[in-house]
Amino acid sequence: MPSTSGPIWERQPAELALPVVHERGRQTLERLLDAAEQMLDFVGLEGATVPAIAAGAGVSVGNVYKRFPDKDALLRAVYERFFNDLLAANQFALDPAKWVDTPTIELVTTLVAGMVEDYRSRRSLIRALLLYAQTHTDSEYRARAEKLSLESFRLFEGVLRDRRADIGHPHPERAIRFLVGLIGHALQSSVVSEPATRDLLSSGSETAAELAKMVVGYLRVKGTERPRAMSQTRRPQT
Question: On the CB side of 231, how many CA atoms lie within 13 Å of its CA?
């Protein structure tokens, strides 16, 4: 088994596989990861068996075990590739230079909508990956995997910290950390739970709008305060 030392997102999925020398071997590795991801998406964690993954990749079961010591190593590689790719995409999307002229209220609304849509549109796959990590027998791995899955939310936290000048909450750092953690765990819990008629993700746009309101209101983003009612003595004369 490969070493599991160091932050999980600093390791590449290929490090979880047995060494490959030729380009053909690397292509087979990618096909296996793609096939495993598709199986997790379509039939869930229970249905993603090694024979099914091998068939989806167009290789023999023996070829799977030439690339990975066991099924667990294969699923770890899929998990890490998915959340590392998600993190990289969000790092690109959340580049501060892209948002410098965007008002904070619009920024919050756009980013929250994007997070909700990510989880809504890829619900089946994310559910299978999270269930895999959350039910893993290795408690140290569970903790590291959870940290990786929440890294994209920490990017959102950083964006909000950069807008402290627009936040009226008396303890902005604490408020930002609390809100972002709440949103992250709420979305993940909704994904892991069995789909219901009215859960957080059943109406993505409605959920995004309500979460954005919560963020803006709790942080007291400037420009959203209600004007105080005028007193009788200061009311304009008609």
Answer: 2
Structure confidence by residue, pLDDT tens digits, 84-139: 999 999 999 988 888 989 999 999 999 999 999 999 999 999 999 999 999 999 99
The domains found in the chain, sorted by start residue, are 7-78 (1.10.10.60), 94-223 (no CATH)
Q: Higher pLDDT residue, 42 or 205?
A: 42
Does the pTM exceed 0.85? no
